[in-house]
Amino acid sequence: MTHEKHSEATQNNYAFIDAQNLHAGVDSLGWKLDYKKFREYLRTELDVKRAYLFIGFMEEHQPLYSALQEAGFILHFKPLIRHDESAIKGNVDADMVLQTMVDIERYEQAVIISGDGDFAGLIRHLAGLSKLKQVIIPNRSNYSSLFKRLNEYGDVYFTFMNDLRGKLAYRDFNNKKPRQNNQHDQAHTATHPAQNTQPAATETGSQPAATSATKPKPRARRPKTDSASRGRDQASDAGLDIVIH
Questions:
Q1: How far, in Å, CA of 25 to CA of 87, rounded?
Q2: Side-chain half-sphere exposure of 74, counting CA atoms within 13 A
């Protein structure tokens, strides 16, 4: 059984995103996903008009949700179940599958973003109906073996976030090296040793007179934070690293 990839760009595709799986996969790769860039990528590269982000809801993380909405995502919340003070459960799989099928007549093709094997049946079904645009798997080295059994779809439909780092990473933290002095800086340091800036003592042997350089500087005011900044601060607690600039 073969499936040909649509050659014409569709104009009304929907994306269905497993937020926790996306976060965990990208985080394991060692970089941070810029969600504003990601939304633009979905729009320009895959013709995604509506991007649903399925995420657990915690009232204290409202700034995070506001930042994601400002980036262009439609949030689909799953209430979280607290088993104790540390364990929080919020499985979005069923809701994501249901929404994909409820909307199936409203979109031309679907983009599924997850590496969770619970979506393998959905992927097979969408592909059989020619309703699958692409599957974006967060980590090539760590995704369900059920996806690997869909061999007939792999070359056509599957994309990995590993290959999108250059386009979607907010900042390349791992490859950022400390600044090294160049030859000019080193030569300048060797030929111009630091001079003693301490004021000379007076003739009577008293302490040097105070200068403007010794006066304490006023403390800088802490800038106010907007909803996006507060969202970034709360992102890790919510299980999602988000960077929006």
A1: 20
A2: 10
Give yes or no for a contact between 165 and 140, defined as CB atoms under 8 angstroms apart.
no
Helical pair 93-102 and 120-128, crossing angle rounded to 10 deg: 10
* CA dihedral (152, 158, 163, 166) positive or negative: positive
Using CB atoms within 10 A of its CB, is residue 146 exposed (0-12), middle (13-18) or buried (19+)? Answer: middle
Q: What whole-number percentage of the chain has pLDDT above 70?
A: 58
pLDDT for 28: 92
What does residue 119 show for φ and ψ, rounded to 5 degrees?
-95, 5
Q: Could you give the domains of the chain?
A: 13-173+226-235 (3.40.50.1010)
Among all chains, which residue has been given the structure tokens 């930042």? 67
* Model confidence band, residue 217 (pLDDT cutoffs 50, 70, 90): low
Q: With a cut of 80, say whether residue 203 has pLDDT above it.
A: no
Structure tokens at 148: 């690997």
SS3 state of residue 164 = helix
Please write the tens of the pLDDT for every residue from 158-171.
Answer: 899 999 999 999 87
Q: Which residue has the tokens 């999602």?
A: 240
Alpha carbon distance 39, 49 (integer Å): 10
Q: Give the pTM.
A: 0.66
Alpha-carbon distance of 48 to 46, in angstroms, equals: 5
The CA distance from 171 to 32, in Å, is 7
Residue 51 in 3-state DSSP? Answer: strand
